[in-house]
Amino acid sequence: MGAPVQVFWVKRIDNTRLCRERDPGFLRETSALVAGTLVCLTIVLLCAWMQFEAVHAGYGLEELRAQHDKVLEWNRNLRLEQAALLDPMRIDQLARNRLGLAEPPAHQLTPLGSVPRGGTAPVLARTGAAQKPVSLAD
Questions:
Q1: What is the Cα–Cα distance from 30 to 39, expressed in whole angstroms?
Q2: Which of 3, 20, 66, 124 is the most buried (most CB within 10 A)?
Q3: Distance from C-alpha of 123 to C-alpha of 116, rounded to nearest angstrom
Q4: Hey, where are the domains in the chain?
Q5: H or E segment at 89?
């Protein structure tokens, strides 16, 4: 078999002077497509921004948690140090060794609430004149 025969038809119509008409719905369809694409793109970008903000907030939260744990540990150490510094045995030892203090002799001790040897109770504070007590009902 040979090669197929090719036939070319010659058109005797001249279309060079014809103008194409614009499609009246083309502009409306194109603008609707562009608007829909912009809305979808806006939604996608908004979702991505929210996701990035959530990740950023998570990092910030973890940093604050680590800082909180560090402050709690620091507070615990300070409380232990305070308890060690307020230990009565330590204070007694510092008073004896560094300051040279000693226990007072027995004749210098006056128990609280007792009357000293002079027979009168010590007066801690005295006002110039005796005042009459003021009642709240007056």
A1: 14
A2: 66
A3: 12
A4: 28-101
A5: helix 88-97
In the Cβ-directed half-sphere of 132, how many Cα atoms lie within 13 Å? 4
Asked if residue 107 lies in contact with residue 101, where contact means CB atoms within 8 angstroms, the answer is no
DSSP state of 68: H
Element (H, E) at 44: helix 26-85
Q: How far apart are CA 77 and CA 73, in angstroms?
A: 6
CA distance 13 to 11: 6
Burial class (CB in 10 A: 0-12, 13-18, 19+), 118: exposed
CA–CA gap between residue 62 and residue 59 (Å, rounded): 5
Answer yes or no: pTM beyond 0.85: no
> 36 vs 30, 42, 43, 48, CA distance in Å?
10, 10, 11, 18
Q: What is the largest CA-CA distance in the chain?
A: 152
